Amino acid sequence: MPRIAKTEEELKSIVHSAVNCEENGQISIADEKKLREEVIDDLIYTAVFSENEKLKEMAKKVIRKIANEYGAIPSSIHDFYMAMGRGEVDNLTVPAVNIRGMTYDVARQMFKVANKHNIGALIFEIAKSEIGYTDQRPSEYAACVLAAAIKEGFKGPVFIQGDHFQFNAKKYAENPEKELQSIKELTKEAIQSGFYNIDIDPSTLVDYSKPTLKEQQYHNYINTAKMTEYIRSIEPEGITVSVGAEIGHIGGKNSTVEEFEAFMEGYLENLPEGMAGISKMSVQTGTEHGGIPLPDGSIADVKLDFNVLKDIGKVAREKYGLGGTVQHGASTLPDELFDKFPESNCCEIHLATGFQNIMYDLIPEDFKQEIYNWLKENLKNEWKEGWTEEQFIYKTRKKGFAPFKYQWWTLDKEYKDRIMEALYNKFEFLFGKLNVFNTKDLVNKYVKPVKVPYGELKG
Questions:
Q1: Residues 6 or more apart from 284 whose CB is under 8 A from it?
Q2: Separation CA 276–CA 211 (nearest Å)
Q3: pLDDT tens digits, 230-286
Q4: 343 half-sphere exposure, CB direction, 13 A CA radius
Q5: Domains of the chain listed by start with CATH number
Q6: CA torsion angle for 135, 138, 144, 148 (degrees, to 10)?
Q7: Which residues pair with residue 123 across a beta bridge?
Q8: Which is nearest to 82 in space by CA: 265, 231, 277?
Q9: How far apart are CA 51 and CA 4, in angstroms?
Q10: How far is 333 from 353, CA to CA, in rounded Å?
C-alpha cells in the first residue's frame, strides 16, 4: 500500500528520495525509476487521503511541479480545434472521459492506451455536478491525472477539462448575478488547478416560450459571452483556454442549425472585438446522460441523429472556424456507432457512465451491496414515483464513489486488476473507433505547452 504522509517532514522525505529541490523553488528529477515506482503513489495518496489539508495542498503542488519538470503539462486544446476549423485536421473525434472514481488508476489506463497507440488527442474531464457528488475538487482531479501521466511515463500536453459548468435555472431566475458569480468562482478554481479547457453551459436558461430563436437563446449566449470574457481575463499568460458552449440541453429536444446560428449571432455581438471565442458547440442529438434505464435495469435503445452533428458541425467549421460539434451522453451507445462520429464533423465526444458500469459489474458482490444499501438509505428522496429498484440503483450509483472513495482505491488486487484490464480494453476499442490513434505528432504541431505553476492565474 502507498504511504500517506502524516507530517511535513515525512512528505519532504518522500519527495527528496527521488527529486532534488533547490532553494529557489526549482526541482530536478534525480531518480525517475523510484519516482514512477514508489514516490508518485505516495504523493497522490497523500494528496487525496491525508486528513491534514495543508499536507494535501503541499502534495498537489509538488505533483504539479514534478509533472511540469517531467513533461506532462496541463494544456489547452483550443489551437488544435482551431486547426480543425481551418480544415487542417479532420476525420477524428477527441474522446473526453469523465472519471468518477478510482481516478488515478483509471487515468493510468487511458495513458497506457495513449502510449501504446501514440495518442495525443485525449481529454480528462469532470462536470460541475460530479465535482460535488464524487467529492473531487478540481485540484484533486488534476493531481490524479498528472500523477497518472508520470506513473505511466506519458509526456506531452495533458488536456484537463471542466465539463458542464452549468447554470441552475431556478437560482438564475432568483438572482442572475449571484448564479453567474458562482460559475465564475468554480471556473477560477478549475483554471488555477490546471483545467485549461472549460465547457460553459447556460443551455438550461434557453426559453422556448419566446417568439424568435435569438430571444430563446438570449440568456444562453449572453452568459457564455460573459464567461468567455471572464476566462480570458484570468487565463495564464501564453494560454488560450478552450471554451465550449452548448445550445441543446442534453436530454431535451434536438438542436437545429437555425438555433446554432441564432446563438452565434448573439454571442459574437456580445464578445469584445478581437477576443478569442468558443472552440466548439455541444448539441442535443437524442441522447441522455447515462442512458435511459428500463424497469429491469437494462438501457433503452437511443435514436441518435447524426445529421444534427454533421449539419451544425459543417456550419460551425465553415462559417465560424470552430472545431465542430460535441456529443454528450454517449458511453452507453452501441459499439458499432462510434466510428460514425469522426465522419460527422464531431470534434469531441463525452463518455462517462459506460466506464462506471464496468466498475460496478466487476467489484466484489458484498462491496456492491454495501454501496447499494447506502444509496437506498441515504438517497430515498431521489427515488422517483414508478421506478423499480433497478432503475433507482442505476440512476443513483454514480453517487456511490464519494462515501466509499478509500475502499474503491484500495480494492483487493484481484478485483482492481480485473476492472483496470476491462477499462483498458474498452478505452482501446473506443479510441480506435474515434480515430485518435497516432495523433501525438498532430497535437504537438498545434499545441505548445506552457509550464504554469500550481494555482497561478494571469498577472
A1: 247, 248, 249, 250, 251, 252, 253, 254, 255, 308, 328
A2: 30
A3: 999 999 999 999 999 999 765 567 899 999 999 999 999 999 999 999 999 999 987
A4: 5
A5: 8-70 (no CATH), 74-359+409-446 (3.20.20.70)
A6: 140
A7: 96, 159
A8: 277
A9: 9
A10: 10
The dihedral formed by the CA atoms of 355, 356, 360 and 363, expressed in degrees to the nearest 10: 70
Please give the grid coordinates belonging to residue 440: 501525438
In three state form, how does the secondary structure of 35-89 look? Answer: HHHHHHHHHHHHHHHCCCHHHHHHHHHHHHHHHHHHCEEEECCHHHHHHHHCCCC
Q: Which residues contact 332 (CB under 8 A, 6 or more apart)?
A: 290, 291, 299, 302, 353, 354, 357
pLDDT, residue 301, reads: 62
Q: Which residue has the cell 518522500?
A: 14
DSSP code for 21: E
Is the Cβ–Cβ distance between 397 and 300 less than 8 Å? no
Q: Is beta strand 27-29 parallel, antiparallel or unpaired with respect to 19-21?
A: antiparallel
What whole-number distance in Å separates Cα of residue 367 and Cα of residue 416? 13
The residue written with cell numbers 478509500 in the block is 406
Write down the residue that cell numbers 458541425 correspond to. 313
Q: CA torsion, points 323, 327, 332, 335, in degrees to nearest 10?
A: -50
CB 41 within 8 A of CB 49: no
| Coil, helix or strand at residue 271 | coil
CA distance 86 to 413: 47
Block residue for cell numbers 473506443: 430
**Segments of the chain with pLDDT less than 50:** 289-290
**pLDDT number for residue 329:** 80
pLDDT number for residue 458: 84
